[in-house]
Every structure is written in structure tokens, then in C-alpha cells.
Amino acid sequence: MDSLKAQYRNIIEKVLQDYADFLGSDEDVEIELVFDRERDRYLLVEAGWQNGYRIYGNLQHINMVDCKLWIQHDGTEDGVAVDLVAAGIPKEQIVLGFRTLEQRKLTEFAVS
């Protein structure tokens, strides 16, 4: 189980790093990766200022609980779950935590 957790951690970090690289930081808005491997919390955040307005937002939030990936927030168009599956995570190990239980039952991903 530990080797599977390590594999999942590496995949999560790689997928979020790819998003960060795609978005890129500039002098006004920084893209930040927050990885807490001890508690298995992974975030992609933007912070800064643009045209006099504060920019701050959580773009991605993934937790690993009992070797399942709970997507708590997904601020992407296509969905980070698609990228996690493409990277080797089985659909039954991914929970769309930002959806209600009833909505999760209608997806091809894990319910909980």
C-alpha cells in the first residue's frame, strides 16, 4: 500500500506541476503549488494583483484518503480527473468530492 501511495503522490504532483507550467506565473500573479505529503493534501493556487484587483483562488485541491484521490475542487475546463486517469490512476480510485453523493453515483468514478 505504501508503494501505491507513493506512486499516487508522484502522479498528483506531476499532473499539478503540468497545470502550473501551462498557466505560468507572471510578475503580477503567481501560480503556487502546495504539497503536503505527510497529510496527503495537494493544491494549485493563484495569488497576486491584476489591474488593481486582488487575484486569489484555489484552482485545484486533491486529498488522498485511504488510497483514494478525492478531488475537492476542480477549476479546470476538462477536469483534472481525466488527467489523473491518463497518468495511470484507475477511475475507481478517484472521487469527485465536489459533486453531491447523488451526482457521483451517475459518474464512472468512485462514489466514496
Automatic annotation (TrEMBL):
CDD domains listed in its UniProt record: XisI-like
Q: What is the designated name of this protein?
A: XisI protein
**Source organism of this protein record:** Calothrix parietina FACHB-288
**What is the residue range of the signal peptide feature?**
none
Q: Name one Pfam family in it.
A: XisI
